[in-house]
Design a protein that fits this description.
about 120 residues, mainly alpha, 5 helices, about 50% helix, about 0% strand, globular
Length: about 120
Amino acid sequence: MNNEDSLLPPGFAALEPYLALWSAPTASQRDHLRGARGEAERLAFYNSAKDLLPTALAYLDQRSLRDLNSEERRLMLLMLNLAHVSLAVELQGPSEASHSALRALMPITRASADRDT
């Protein structure tokens, strides 16, 4: 795949396989995905993305949200989804399934990050 066909900015091609699943545009959808996907799917995404997080944030911090192109916006959405998945992996661990059921009683409906979607 050359740069013209890339779905993400240069340096982030390793995350392209996760775009179809882990680029939910709203906090509510990200929260739903976190609970709806199994541990193996969460871990695969987490393990592929966690080391790229500092580089992705540094890259995105150089741009205004308003000025993000489609590749940069997809990267931002992946990182926002990673924040949700990280909670499941790093904090909840094996308890994620029971926490997911409890989160259904107090769902996220929107967040400040949804403002520009």
